[in-house]
Amino acid sequence: MTPCISAASLKLNDSTRHCRPPSQTRRSEETSSAIRGDLLRICRHLFQVYLVTHRDTLTRVAVKMVKKESMVGNPISTLNEREVLEMVQDNPFCAQAYATFQAEKHLSFVLEYMGQGDLAGQIEETWLTLPTIRRMSAELLCGVQLLHSRGIIHRDLKPANILIHLNGHVKIADFGAAATGMFGQPGGRRWNVPILCAGGK
Fold first, then answer.
1. Which of the following is catalytic: 14, 56, 90, 156?
2. Of 60, 112, 176, 193, which has the maximum CB count within 10 A?
3. Domain spanning 116-193, CATH class
4. pTM for the full predicted model
5. In the annotation, is 14 catalytic?
6. What's the confidence (pLDDT) of residue 18?
């Protein structure tokens, strides 16, 4: 990830036309001392994702802000996500990261803004045609194949973690639960598959 993007170079995006779900899209009252934007997603008390714009390029990006207090005693999820995002930078079927930075209370990831929300919301709102399902399935299989070829297991692949770009293509996201160093490939953290830990039951 390139370090050229800083909190100071990001500004609030004025449009939420493509933000989903609408019920969760609202102007943030307080995110951190550096970032204020339109709320795209919230995950309990762990993190929030905001839509902002890079001041110099006018590129819209998603900033995922992880509360540092949520990492106390268990920083593995955030470390996993950063490691995997670096490993999949050239994978067109995985969401891309541009930079990371930190403020007093948050660690932040500057991520590719997809624009059409996640597959879970798409399934709830509309019928997917058979050709669309086939294309999405093929793209996801390519993404998973590349992850496995690099010794990465996602471990939390579900519709909510599959993002849809404005052009209709899908990408795998949210690598906090991922395991690396699998299948004999080099990596930082190895994990046992849960079903094997349970004796195959």
1. 156
2. 176
3. mainly alpha
4. 0.70
5. no
6. 33
